[in-house]
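We modelled the chain as a single entity of 186 amino acids. Its sequence is:
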Amino acid sequence: MENSTYKVVIASKNPVKVNAALDGLQRMFPEAAFVPEPASVPSGVADQPMTEHETLQGALNRVANAKQAHPEADFWIGIEGGVEVIGGELATFAWVVVQDREQQGKARSGTFFLPQQVRELVEQGVELGTANDRIFSHSNSKQKGGAIGILTHNVVDRRELYEQAVVLALVPLRNKSLYQNPQPQR
């Protein structure tokens, strides 16, 4: 990428997701400038995705809906947080999908397990951010450090967790020639 300015539609107005997307782009393309456009678009999945597949589908849907709503952009980024029961415990993670005009990259964030009290609320249909706020006596934690920030005492926060996944999702876009769709063999 040359020294240019690029419009980025982030499929969320949550400042944690917006900043994670911008920081990840800036780390991978330090020579470029990015102008963010946060956009509320539907994920097409439950407010609290309960499986890996549903979470990835939500990120893919957010990118598709953002691209449809803002076709003039240079990049579209969808970040979807989700949970899944693994070995009897509730794990949480996020999927990130990044699309430019030619190709797409995907990556998953790190995963960690939630306390039993949080799991019980989520399994009753409470969205994870709301469950965290109730259990940990916080307010609007999903637009701040999130569960990871609370549980690590801010050693790692939600923005940092998502930023790394944004960087990983950008790998194909940073290495375009290695990730080109191969031509069908004849």
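As a brief sanity check on the tokenised model: The first helix runs from residue 15 to 28. The two ends are 33 Å apart (CA to CA).
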